[in-house]
Specification:
single chain, 28% helix
């Protein structure tokens, strides 16, 4: 393996799975921070500051199931996305 090139051997679909793998010594990773997030006690967590990193988000809901609250949230997300 060349220096600087990660050796990706496993990918996960949830932050919980990622943090659990890291906590048992299976790699490192980047994760989002949020209120109420708890991290395994044996993890070193370092907040990254002053990053200029573009990212994309999606907003999803169950197809065909619309409510007035959901419609309002869709309106808010569309305004924020402009």
């Amino acid at each position: 393996m060349k220096r600087g090139n990660p050796n990706v051997v496993q990918e996960v679909s949830t932050i919980a799975a990622q943090l659990n793998l890291i906590s048992v010594g299976m790699g490192i990773g980047l994760a989002v921070m949020g209120k109420g997030f708890t991290y395994p006690n044996n993890l070193a967590v370092v907040p990254l500051e002053s990053l200029n990193y573009p990212t994309s988000f999606i907003f999803g809901w169950v197809k065909g199931e619309r409510t007035p609250i959901l419609d309002r949230m869709i309106e808010i997300v569309r305004e924020l996305a402009k």
